[in-house]
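task queued by scheduler; priority normal; single chain, no ligands, no partner chains; default sampling; output format set to structure tokens
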Amino acid sequence: MLRSLPLLLALTSLAPFQCSKSYDPTLRRDDDPGDALYELAQDFKARGDDKSYRETLQFLLKRYPSSRRAAKARMELAPDAGAAP
């Protein structure tokens, strides 16, 4: 037991360095509700259901305003977003 003590101390001293301290939300692999709503809106758009597309984006902004998809939803709902250049 006493011989393994230095090894145990060495391993526990390295534990704080095993995980990264910084968090980058763009590297997230999990979807959140905002992601799911945005994808649902895109499905409605692809099917030509503009009313459901816009309502889904509006719900996303109302319910999850800080979602990583909120900025895209705001841009797509902007009055001039559908206008041709």
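post-processing summary
- Residues 39 and 46 are 11 Å apart (CA to CA).
- Residues 37-78 form one domain.
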